[in-house]
TrEMBL record, chains A, B:
It comes from the Bacteria. Pfam families: PALP. This is Threonine synthase. The keyword Lyase applies. It comes from Peribacillus glennii. One of its GO terms (biological process) is isoleucine biosynthetic process. Gene3D superfamilies: 3.40.50.1100. Its cofactor is pyridoxal 5'-phosphate. Keywords: Lyase, Pyridoxal phosphate. Its EC number is 4.2.3.1. Residues 74-380 form the Tryptophan synthase beta chain-like PALP domain.
Amino acid sequence: MKYSYLSHLECPKCSSIYSAEEVQQLCQCGSPLLAKYRLDEVKTNIKREDLQRREKSLWRYHELLPVHTIENVITLGEGYTPLVTVPKIGAKYGIDDLYIKDEGIIPTGSFKARGAAVGVSKAKELGVKTLAMPTNGNAGGAWSLYSAKAGIESFIVMPKEAPAITRVEVHISGSHLYLINGLISDAGKVVAHLVKEKGFYDVSTLKEPYRIEGKKTMGYEIAEQMDWKLPDVILYPTGGGVGIIGIYKALLELKELGWINEEKLPRLVAVQAEGCAPIVKAWEEGKMESEFWENSETNAFGINVPKAIGDFLVLQAIRETGGCAISVSEESIKNSQQEVASLEGNFICPEGAATFAAAKILRENNWIKPNETVVCLNTGQGIKYPESFEVESAVLEKGEAIIL
Amino acid sequence: MKYSYLSHLECPKCSSIYSAEEVQQLCQCGSPLLAKYRLDEVKTNIKREDLQRREKSLWRYHELLPVHTIENVITLGEGYTPLVTVPKIGAKYGIDDLYIKDEGIIPTGSFKARGAAVGVSKAKELGVKTLAMPTNGNAGGAWSLYSAKAGIESFIVMPKEAPAITRVEVHISGSHLYLINGLISDAGKVVAHLVKEKGFYDVSTLKEPYRIEGKKTMGYEIAEQMDWKLPDVILYPTGGGVGIIGIYKALLELKELGWINEEKLPRLVAVQAEGCAPIVKAWEEGKMESEFWENSETNAFGINVPKAIGDFLVLQAIRETGGCAISVSEESIKNSQQEVASLEGNFICPEGAATFAAAKILRENNWIKPNETVVCLNTGQGIKYPESFEVESAVLEKGEAIIL
């Protein structure tokens, strides 16, 4: 019994094959590479019921993850996050079975921990000493902390507008932090230059093949937590899109394993902000790729990604599942954030709130039917965005009483 | 098979018995009340192996929790937090088997979620409409969010120096927030007055009997996650002390159930800050209760509690387990926080860092032996304290390169 059934890397664009036993970045054709597993062997050796007694982390799926030996696993206990019903929001929106997959309940308070855990573990296994990445904040926090645990040096470049707490995460981990007066795309150029000059491992979104393997486990978990019966719709806040690509990859793998037997996969929905909606524009225009979105802006900072390198994979995932792409207003994001907290107790991040705003619209225009099972994916803790809300409050002096 | 085997409430001081089927606060003698279960029936009906397939939350122990019907359970998926080895810190301190129980990986990013989940669920079951509490911040955030989910109105009073993000948690949940120019003890007086005037449910630390039932599940989890073999030492950052009292209660219950068979329970260590160490002072003086600590001050804000109502129970727990109480300096707290993040990747809160600082000292003076198994309990996410670290960083302009 092997710990991992990783086989090789494959280009989804030109079908080139690469070895997974040495460091790889993009395919020579410019596309991201995807990890392939010996799924037939997994099917023979593991049954989905075997998972039940395993640890409550994403490493319960280790046969389907790219790390060959457990000694290389760098873990802070990430994954197997709560999937919880939100009946009051469901009633308000007119959706009978509405769930939140709450990725705030994870190390670093953001789903970026999944990609970092698997990506850093594999980097360690491949002998990487130094890595570099551009980030909108949360990924930088996660990768710097996991790199610290792995003993890998890291260089992190983020927009100076990124959530302030993520700077502290990078700083306290001992990583090298650089702010940039620009967007993640500008940070990406800085990293590309640094990587070229110094030969560091480039862990930009989808430029290394393993972050997505961490993210795909969200798909496994949704299936397992629903007792292998899939929801009808999954809504995902889409910046770089690794999560939605990963969830789709996971569902296809589960299908091949025979662990899910429904013909119809969940309809995957890419949710963006009106101020940065390149995927939505491409979707509406029926295109296979997106164009760079000029002057992008949104308070849902994690999805301020003007051009995603995996855009064609995101569009493919929503097309092939009968999903869609939709953008939502800043006001609706803020309203949803407030609504979910005050009715359901989840203090979600703006990116996660965007999926609720989208679910509301999609129900209103009947794209979502009332009796469908719907999962909104919240990608992080609201507490990472203290600047989102101004709180005014009375200040009492000692001995003063509350008068109602 | 009952969902809960709750029997009644009992005073640990004067042994008075109270019904658990109606709202109770303190015993008439002034002591907190503790929940008692029909452990003989639990022993007959449930085996510890039955837990393995259960959900990854503290509700896996529902027979030993006070909520009678699952419909009253208010959950955001709290509990079953990671118990992870920290070998690099262990090597640095000279402790072979050092673990972190990471309570940051929980809704609201603080272990206060445990008490809130169980406390609010039971309040709902008892028909409570409005509750009030003083807090150092994190408990207020947790109780207001869980109350929001339960549809219970809440009044939260916290020092204006409490972590700012906790105000946002209270605000966004729709709770009533009051700041006070003073300490939690001053906030407590405000709440006591409000409760007396309005008849609200007082959920101050240990003034209602069920918060501790949520907190005790940390003890169950440490035992279960270690395959029912207990560690030698558990270090706990002690403010109100509910967690350490709860862990001790849990261990005694497990012993009675026969789920743990070691004669020797872990030595429980109450860790405080030098600027607020009433329990340590009482411990060193061999007293049964602590005295009010004047002009208390510490950056580990959650343990700035000058006089805990359950102090005698904390002292009892450490005395009966052969534990101790120890205070640590602000500098050592900050150092440990940095050390744990940069070596192990856990961005822990100052309160949690205090337990590492204490473990270091206790190993140095050989109170902890090198081959002992030690658990440091981190009570929350470092990200809730953005003000803890000032981060200086170069700001690049677009097109500018990193020069190494």
